[in-house]
Each structure stands twice: as C-alpha cells, then as structure tokens.
DNA sequence: ATGAAAGCGCTAACAG
DNA sequence: CTGTTAGCGCTTTCAT
C-alpha cells in the first residue's frame, strides 16, 4: 500500500488563526473579522489576511468556532438503515435541503435497535446538533413513549430541535415537530381501488406488529373495508417483516392451500416483490389469477413484472419539509402530513368469477 | 446552586462540567476524570459525580473536548448520492465499521459536481475529520488529478487520512490509501463467460465516458475479447449514463434496426434493468433471443425477469476495508483490491444459430 | 479600523 | 487520589 507520502517532514500541527495573523502582520482579531466577514475591515488588512490564508492553506477549526459563537450546527439524521430505499430517498432530500441552508448532515443508523436510538441522540447532544431527525416508522415498544419524552426534553434543553419524520409523535405536547405522510389515507385509497375493481377478499401481507407504519396502513385498509361494508376477516391480515423474503415465503405457503383471497396488499414494495416471485414460481398469473399491490413506489416498482400498482410517498417533500420544520420552527406550514396517492400500473385486474 | 439570579426552570444554557462539579461538590478535574474513565478516582467521588451527571442530565460538549484532547474525530463519507444502491451498501458497511471503532459518520453528497467534492473536503478539514473516504468512481476530468493532489496534501497536513474507495488513485505517491475492487477482472470474467456460452458479438452498453468505473469495465471486456481472439468492434461499445433510462432507450433504438449482437453486457444492473424492459416491450425474449448481463449484483437483480446474471461486488468488505485502511494505516492488509465474481442466473443462453 | 484581552467548556500537567 | 490552573483556537467586547 502507499503509506509512502504520509511521513512528510512538514509540521503536522494544524495552522491556527495565530499563524495567519503573524504571517499577515496583523492581529488575530483582524483575521477573525475578515474570516467571518461580518465586520468592517480595512481593504489593506483584508487583502493581507486573505493572502496569508491562501499561502498557509488555512481553514478554521470548526470546534473552536463552535465553542464561542452561535454556530450553524449539524443536522443529524437517524435511520434504521441507509440501504432501505425509502430512507435513502428521504436522506437524499434532507441532505440537499440541509446543504442549501448551510448545514452539514450526519447520518446515524440504529440497525433497528431501540437502545442505539437513544445512544445516538445523546451523541448528537454532545455534538451540539442543531436538529435531530428521526426518520421512518418504529416498533412502538412499551417504554418507547417514555424514552422519547426524555430524549425530546434533553434535546430541547440543549436548544436542539427534534423532528419525527415519517413517524407519529409518541405523545402529545412533546417539544418536537412532526412531519409525516398519510399512511392511513394511502392504504385507504389503495384498498378502495382494489374493492372497486371487484375484490372482496384482500390479503394484507407484512408489516411488523406494533410498527407505526404497519399499524397505520392496516388501519387504512380496515377503514376502507368498513366503508364498503365488507366484513373484516382477521385471518386476512398477516403481519411480518417488511422484507422480500417474508412476502415470498408466506405467499409460497399460502399458495399451497386452498386460496380464498383474490388480491394481495403487500405492506410495502419489497414484500410485493417477494409475492410476485412466489406467484411466478407457483404458476399463479398476476394479475389474471391474483392481483398484487404494494406501498412506497420504489424506483424499481415500475420494472416489476407485471409493473406494480402501488402507493406513492413524497420522499423529497418529506425530507425537505423535515429540514424546514427543524430549522424554521416559527414558519407557518401548509401541511405537516403530506399526501400519498395510488399509482396505477399493471398488477391489478378484476377477480375471476 | 448555580445561577442564583436566573433560576428559571427553562434556562436553555447547556450545562457544563462546572455545573456538575458544583452539584457534586468536587472539582471540575474530578468530573473530567470520571467522565473520561481513564484515571483512577475515588469510589465516593466517582459515585457523586455520576449522580450529579444523572440529575443534571449532563452530556459533555464534544467541541470543547475536541479542542483539547486527541479526539476520535469523524469519518466523512463522500458519495455521489446515497440513493445509488451500491453506494448505500458501502455507506452502510462504513457506518457500521466506523461505529464499531467508535467513530461518527458524516455523509456528504456531491451530486456529481466536482467542485462540491473539494468544498466538502475543506469542510472536513474544518471539522477535523479523522478520515475522508471518497467512494465510487468519478469522471476523470482534466484537472481532476491536480485537484486531488491538492486535496490529499491539505488533508495530510491536517493529519487526516484520505481514502479512495472503489476508485483508483488519480496519481501515484499521493498521501492517501486506495481500497478498490476488481472492476477490470469482473468484466473480463463476465465477458469470458459470455464467450464460452458461444457469444461472439457482445454489445457493451452504458458507462459515462471517462468514468473510472466504466473505463475499467470496458478494459476487462476488451482484454477478454482479445484473449479469445475475437476482433474488437468499436460500434459495439456504446457509452452513456449508468441509468435505467439510458439502457432502455438505447436498446429500444437498437432493436429497431438489424441486430448484430447476440448478447448485451450492461455497464451496471440499472442499465440492465432498462435493457430488459426494452426487450420485453419489443417482444425480444431474454435469454432465448438475446442474452443480457449486468454488473453490481443489486439486491433486486435476482428479481429481474429473467433473473440477472451479473458481477458481484463485495460492498461490505469494501466499506469495512476502507474504514480499516483509514484508521489503521500501519496494519498490513491482505488485499487492497477486492475480488469480484460472476453470479450466474437465468439471463444468458447460447446464441441461436 | 484595529489591537488587547477575556472567556467558551474541557483536559492535562502540576502540585499537594 | 484530588484540586488548581494553564491553555486548546477562536470570537467578541472594550479600548484605542
């Protein structure tokens, strides 16, 4: 390997504002003023400082700066995993909006371990993060609300903003903002869509039990059923991980027996991908023999075979809105729960009679 | 207690180590010692400090700490976009490894704008990042090597490590580490695989011109052709963006005319997805009428129809190795260029004769 | 317009 | 083992 260049005879000590001042023949105060740009400085002094900065290739020490002045601070993004397409999309939007507003973006992953979430939040307190965004649904364990209450107050006491993004507030009156999208409404719309296509027996598949996102989607599904006067069959809701594997295995098993449902509402597109594959292997034609829909509208959903009818979530808007809510708490907002809508493709057809 | 005059319950000022010391009735040094854990402290003192920390819900100021002691520092990850599946996977691995070694992970995106790359690196210098990882290929513009040389030296002077990850070093003897995977070898193996299946006319599709990754893959393709004594036809290499859309549109156009090739080697799986869709729409059966392969082995590649034969890149190993190279420069490493291999699925068949 | 100097919150000698 | 104190690099009064 090329460790060759590392041992430069150069003094590794970072240059300080003092070095610059000496080099330019001015005081440290002047250098600071030039660098911050918000004070009037003589033209001569300014140019000498600038030249010295150039020649010494100086950059300020962000830590020292943070210690004295009110700093921009970073935006911390806490997600389950960056590899989850939905989260990556939100992260992308957050990152862009944060950059646009002059903030750095720290991404932390929890791997779904709840304890990591509070550990990460404490880390952010240490860093003096300007805001912490908790993105994506969670499994609401018993102690979750209490833990969040504590976290919210700790952050608030440190002058940081907490934002729940794509996740409901665990309790009312928390010092935190909430920016979500209409999970329940999207599921309602999708279920209605299936019903109007003639389906009466719809399997809802996937979504961890107690997971906020899953719960909301199931709630929408049930409300639609209710509104259409279709009796709810508990056996038709089969919770499970939000994974391709779960969708595949569960449907594979179900396809073995006598099948009662004519459509599958997968909890998300990943689950739907598994369902489609299971159908293909079992020789069940989609949508002719079985209709399948998903939720999220991942980029690849359009490429599924058949292309997937699913619910679109406005990732970009979500990410941007979350950053704005974090940075401009006082701003009036049009809507804190963003709309979702059904994207119709080729995976639904009226059931065979 | 502190701030007698300002006893407001909602005093937003962050608590300091001094508050803790006062509350515990010990000196600030003792508090610092207990917190850092690396000094011997009396049991009584320790417990009093710990209790005070609890009661005050205190967390240290990471900036102040960074100013005095040799700190862990963060690992900065610079990528084109987090939404690119390959980059997200590497980011995931980096994040995990960094966390395991006690480092925070900052993710910055460049949106492919080269100027953003150097801006971001300067930001990292200000933050005193422990390491900066430049992940993924780039289009090597004319001034790219010079810019990287400057960046590398600036980072080196600040005591940070620069790591090129999944990208070759722009010049030799740079104070930076390189951790890559065998792009050329993977393409060679894949091309050989197609040739042994009987293909003699293979279209290489996609990959921006001048992009390091694309160049390496094309090099492997050409070397294989050469080794099999198959004349190289320049018309059979069609560069373009690494996108689904490009694969789709280009193949759509090509399928209109008389077709000479019997197989398509897509520059990556995204391009392959576009190719498959174009084929489906044009009624060209894959793999019966045309073989299609990709590169990357995205999670969804197994779900393509037909499932895609592609080249697997060891994302996880790549991310972990990059972090290790950054954090332990002196460690001996088995290999700085990780192996790739062909994953055989259902999208290749001997050409019709 | 510029310089001197007092901290920001913390750690690390250095005494005791 | 514990307390005192001198900075880390920078910003910001306060003088000049």
UniProtKB/TrEMBL annotation, chains A, B:
Lineage start? Bacteria, Bacillati, Actinomycetota, Actinomycetes, Streptosporangiales
Q: Which SUPFAM superfamilies match?
A: lambda repressor-like DNA-binding domains, Periplasmic binding protein-like I
**Source organism superkingdom:** Bacteria
For this UniProt entry, the molecular function terms from Gene Ontology, in alphabetical order, are: DNA-binding transcription factor activity; transcription cis-regulatory region binding
SMART domains (alphabetical): HTH_LACI (SM00354)
Per the UniProt record, one Pfam family is: Peripla_BP_3
InterPro entries annotated for this entry?
Answer: HTH_LacI, LacI/GalR-like_sensor, Lambda_DNA-bd_dom_sf, Peripla_BP_I
HTH lacI-type domain: from which residue to which, for each copy?
15-69
Q: Which organism is it from?
A: Nonomuraea cypriaca
Q: What is this protein called?
A: LacI family DNA-binding transcriptional regulator
Q: What are the entry keywords? A: DNA-binding, Transcription, Transcription regulation
């Amino acid at each position: 390997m090329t460790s060759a260049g590392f041992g430069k005879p150069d003094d590794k000590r970072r240059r300080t504002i003092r070095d610059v001042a000496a080099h330019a023949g001015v005081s440290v105060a002047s250098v600071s003023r030039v660098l911050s740009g918000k004070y009037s400085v003589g033209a001569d002094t300014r140019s000498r400082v600038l030249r010295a900065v150039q020649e010494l290739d100086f950059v300020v020490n962000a830590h020292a700066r943070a210690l004295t002045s009110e700093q921009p601070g970073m935006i911390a993004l806490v997600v389950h995993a960056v590899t989850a397409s939905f989260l990556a999309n939100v992260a992308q939007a957050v990152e862009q909006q944060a950059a646009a507003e002059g903030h750095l973006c720290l991404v932390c992953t929890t791997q779904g371990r709840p304890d990591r979430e509070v550990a990460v939040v404490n880390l952010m307190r240490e860093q003096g993060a300007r805001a912490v965004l908790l993105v994506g649904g969670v499994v609401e364990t018993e102690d979750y609300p209490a833990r969040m209450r504590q976290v919210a107050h700790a952050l608030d006491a440190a002058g940081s903003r907490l934002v729940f993004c794509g996740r409901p507030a665990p309790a009312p009156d928390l010092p935190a903002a909430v920016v979500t999208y209409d999970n329940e409404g999207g599921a309602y719309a999708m279920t209605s869509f299936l019903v109007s296509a003639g389906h009466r027996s719809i399997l809802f598949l996937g979504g961890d039990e107690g997971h906020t996102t899953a719960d909301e989607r199931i709630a929408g599904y049930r409300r639609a059923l209710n509104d259409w006067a279709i009796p709810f069959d508990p056996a038709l809701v089969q919770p499970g991980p939000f994974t391709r594997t779960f969708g595949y295995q569960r449907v594979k098993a179900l396809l073995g027996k006598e099948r009662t449902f004519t459509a599958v509402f997968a909890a998300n597109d990943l689950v739907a991908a598994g369902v489609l594959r299971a159908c293909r292997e079992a020789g069940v034609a989609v949508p002719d023999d079985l209709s399948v829909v998903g939720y999220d509208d991942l980029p690849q959903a359009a490429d599924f075979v058949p292309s997937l009818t699913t619910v679109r979530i406005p990732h970009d808007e979500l990410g941007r809105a979350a950053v704005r809510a974090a940075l401009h708490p006082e701003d009036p907002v049009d809507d804190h729960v963003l709309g979702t809508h059904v994207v119709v493709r080729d995976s639904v057809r009226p059931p065979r009679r």
